[in-house]
Amino acid sequence: MSALSVEAALERILADVGVGPTEGTHLAGAYGRVLAERILAPISLPPWANSAMDGFAVRAADVPGRLRVLETIAAGGVGRLRVESGTASRIMTGAPVPAGADTIVMLEDTESDGGSVSIATSARVGQHVRLEGSDIRAGEVVFEPGRRLTPGVVGVLASLGIARVQVAVRPRVAILSTGDELVEPGLPLGPGQIYSSNNHALIGLVVAAGGEPVDCGTVRDEPEALRAAFLAAAALADLVVSTGGVSVGDFDHVKDVVGAVEFWRVAMKPGKPLAYGRFGGRPFFGLPGNPVSCMVNFLQFVRPVIRRLLGDPRPFLPVVHATLRAPLRRSPGRVELLRVRLEREDGHLFAIPAGRHQGSGNALGMAEGHGFALLDAESTEVSGVVRVQLFDREFDDAESPAYGWGEIPAADGPCC
Ligand code: AMP
Ligand code: MG
Q: In b/e form, how buried is each residue of 247-260, taking b as 16+ CB within 10 angstroms?
């Protein structure tokens, strides 16, 4: 088993994967996907000059003054008459600005009696007019491949009239747990048995990474059963992820079964044993069985592969800087991924170790933490600012209310 740095392991793994295939999707199914084409605006936005207000379309030079009203233009309608000097057309928000008019005066600044309108204020040319192409010009590049389809991006595509887009195919990720001691949640525990958690945590991690999980259940610590299960998984998925059985224990058979796969000791804490290679023609990851190591390894090595397959130009977790609330002592040797909770106070981020302790078996740290503080291999005392890789981008903010605009009045009765 060879020893490798985290960077070297990642480099070896990423050298083996390229951008995956693409498919078309209707906009309704586009949220959360990764764009696989460059989007050029087929039309300008707005497509024509329109009114930003309910009011009157006028010539700026005519106001203040009293003007004859020609017609009313609703959103969805088109003015028939040209606004000449001394005239105005009543217009609603979103309606096209009629020919001849260069300015909109808002309804609140006018007084009309049906046939004519009095405007007491002066106006600037172009006031309350949304000009053609002022948001996006026809033909310009709006989005590049690799763009995450957030609700905002999907909204812009819809505004441009684009009904279908080319997106990266979600890689199917087969998930297998290995271990004779494992029992699915919901079933009674026998002597010596524990509940299998890795496959469940991995389902969420795969979905969050943009993949499609295929839970292949638990396999016994028995070479033939493992081989059959891994082959079946490789046949139905793009990527195979198994957990457990990659150490040096008597029943760690994964390495005997998967042939060309290499076994590495990655110099990081937690989570050193890692198997990676091709099995059944698919990239195969053998993650450690320990629940924390399993999640740490997934986030460091499998998630970037999924993001790479999806064509994400930035396949790594985002990193923020935070100040450790208290100094830490540690034993040097390997880089360490400390599970930390983040808190914001007076605009600064602070990091606090998460969970009851940092032992690699303490799964609470992954539930309560928002990220990994990345500690250098050689450090013995750590204080001050650390880099934190976020695995939970929506970290809650213990020090301030989630609602940012002041007190929310308490509800005073049942809602239904
Ligand atoms: P292994 O890598 O198979 O030696 O397992 C290391 C530790 O992780 C052992 O304590 C296992 O019981 C535990 N473990 C292995 N697989 C799972 C799993 N799917 N869910 C929870 N714990 C597991
Ligand atoms: Mg095991």
A: beeeebbbbebbee
Q: Are residues 265 and 283 in the same domain?
A: yes
335 and 366 share one domain: yes
Nearest CA to ligand 1 atom 23: 289
407 has a pLDDT exceeding 90: no
In short, whether 71's Cβ falls inside 6 Å of ligand 1 is no
pLDDT range class, residue 251, cuts 50, 70, 90: confident
- Separation in Å, CA 3 to CA 90, 337, 359: 76, 18, 22
Compute the distance between CA of residue 38 and CA of residue 13 in angstroms, rounded to an integer.
28
Asked if 237 and 173 count as a contact pair (C-beta separation under 8 A), the reply is yes
Same domain? For 13 and 34 the reply is: no
Instruction: Provide mean pLDDT across the span 17-44.
Output: 97
Domain count, the chain: 4
**Ligand 1 pocket, 118 CB below 6 A?**
no
Same domain, 182 and 200: yes
Mean pLDDT of 8-19: 93
pLDDT category of residue 395 using cuts at 50, 70 and 90: low
Residue closest via CA to ligand 1's atom 3 equals: 244
Any ligand 1 atom below 6 A from CB of 273: no
Ligand 1 near 297 CB (within 6 A): no
**Average pLDDT of 296-313?**
96
Closest ligand relative to 272 C-alpha? 1
